[in-house]
Amino acid sequence: MKLATKIIIALLLGAVVGIILNVTSPDLFSKLNTFLFGPLGTIFLNLIKMLVVPIVFFSLTLGVAGLGDPKKLGRIGAKTISFFLITTAIAIIIGLVLALVIKPGTIGTYDTSAAEYSAQKAPSISDTLLNIIPTNPVQAMAEGNMLQIIAFSILVGLGITMLGKKADALLKVVEQGNDLMMYLVNLVMKFAPYGTFGLIAGAIGSQGWDAIKAMGLYMIVVILALFIHTIVTYGAAIALLAKRNPLTFFKDFSEVMLVAFSTSSSNATLPVSMDVAQRKLKVPEPISSFVQPLGATINMDGTAIMQGVATVFIAQVYGNDLSLTQLLMVVLTAVLASIGTAGVPGVGLIMLAMVLQTVGLPVEGIALILGIDRLLDMIRTAVNTTGDAACAVIVTETEKKHGKIEAPHSEVSV
Ligand code: ASP
Questions:
Q1: Residue 258 CA to ligand 1 centre (angstroms)
Q2: Which residues are in coiled coils (predicted)?
Q3: Nearest C-alpha neighbor of 389 from the set 298, 306, 283
């Protein structure tokens, strides 16, 4: 049986077991969650998180060394960042329009008097940008600070290129390190079905169904916007810019979407996502290793959609009409907020506080959507990772006219 099929079966099984236990026996659920679902999920998450830092370092260093030309890196960087920014803006606009048309906050009653939420301090954008340069790369790796690891790996890769023959042995080490990590990803993924089962059973079993019913329309609007963005924006981008068949893209990438769905973390999904992009989507290593780690850190279209819908929803619940200027502010701040959102579960909601504050909406409104955000996080994380892969495919295809890209000593080339 194929791995993707096994993961789907585990996911469905986890959902069914979670729902049954939630409805029939919450006591049994909490015991099983402590001793079975929780541990299975944590083992899987730890196994893949274990690989994230070394994979980003080895493969990005190798990738940059493989490009061999800083100009090429600049061009790929510019394309990647433009794609990230434009698609994120489109994502928020889709979310805003749907929320304004369907008006989820005006139907039903929401108790705002009990709403309490203290906003955690979101890092400022200028701090984030200045912090890209690590003062201590070892610390950056120990803390898993993705942007800093990316910056360091790019410099090491450039250095290896510039030193040429002198750094040959080092290049070999990086290359073999990379092969080793890819091997480990495949090994660890053998545990994915069990991990998925544990994660989904735990997540679904702990939901309060009353909360879901009460927030049904809001959830439908978010999910609809996520769906439209994936199919229309990414589908069209793949067809028009990469001139590839979108259906094949989605089919090849579906295994990664499932992992993103069950882990709710772009970072944790990264090793699998890069592996599938390189093997199935035929993205050359240098492009995959540059675009995907960067995307997992700054490109969060699914999160941006949630932030757009949530802002309009909260405005509606509090009886506040957003002006056109305020809506434009939402687009701008949500793009920034999604850049600042780390690829781990639930951070999108913390960054939402920043968007609400900019347009003068009560941050306590977040309390209304807190209860059901765990479920939406699963779906938006799948969209977040898909956006990164779509970008990698588009950069691959548009780079073809500039000649061949290949990793040094590697067979993967375009
Ligand atoms: N969980 C999301 C991710 O990792 C981020 C978020 O929206 O909370 O991509």
A1: 14
A2: none
A3: 283
Residue nearest to atom 1 of ligand 1 (CA): 345
Q: Which one has a higher pLDDT value, 402 or 73?
A: 73
391 with 83: CB under 8 angstroms? Answer: yes
Report how far ligand 1's centroid is from the alpha carbon of 52 (Å): 16
What was the pLDDT predicted at 409?
41
Class (C level, CATH) for 1-399: mainly alpha
Residue 344: pLDDT band with limits 50, 70, 90: confident
pLDDT at position 414 over 50: no
Q: Which residues line ligand 1 (CB under 6 A)?
A: 264-266, 300, 303, 341, 343-348, 377, 380-381, 384
Question: Which of 313, 346, 311 lies closest to 330 in space, CA to CA?
Answer: 311
Cα(295) to ligand 1 centroid in Å equals: 12
Are 380 and 302 contacting, i.e. CB atoms less than 8 angstroms apart?
Answer: yes
Domain residue spans in the chain?
Answer: 1-399
Q: What angle do CA 271, 57, 268 make, to 5 degrees?
A: 30
User: What is the reported pLDDT for 168?
Assistant: 93
Q: Which atom of ligand 1 is nearest to 338's Cα?
A: 7
**CA 397 to ligand 1 center in whole angstroms:** 28
Give the pLDDT band of residue 248 (cuts 50, 70, 90).
Answer: very high
What CA–CA distance (Å, rounded) separates 277 from 249?
10
Closest ligand 1 atom to the C-alpha of 341? 5
Report the sign of the C-alpha dihedral through residues 393, 290, 376, 332, in that order.
Answer: negative
Listed in sequence order, the residues at least 6 apart from 288 whose beta carbon sits closer than 8 Å to its beta carbon are 59, 63, 274, 277, 278, 392
